[in-house]
Amino acid sequence: MALGGLPVGPTVTGVLSLDDVCLDGRTVLLRVDVNSPLNPETMEFMDDRRFTEFLSTLEALSSSKVVIISHQSRPGYLDFTSTEPHSVLLSSLIGRPVGFVSDVCGEDAISAIKGMDDGDVLFLDNVRKHEEEISMKRASPEEMANSEIVRNLSAVIDAYVTDAFATAHRSSPSLTGFAGEVPCIAGRLMKKEINALRTAVFDPPRPYVVILGGIKCDDSLRVALNLIEKGTVDRIAMVGVVGNLMLWADGTDIGATNRDFVRESLGDSFEETWEMAEELISNHHNLLFLPTDLAVESVGKRVPMSVSDLPTEFPIYDIGIETMMNLRPLIMGAGCLLWNGPPSYFEKSEFAYGTIEIMNMFVEAPGVTIVGGGHTSALFNQRGKAGEVHHNSTGGGAVLCMLSGDRMPVFEALESSKEKFTPLLSALGLSPRES
Ligand code: 3PG
Question: Do residue 151 and residue 267 come from a single domain?
Answer without folding.
Answer: no
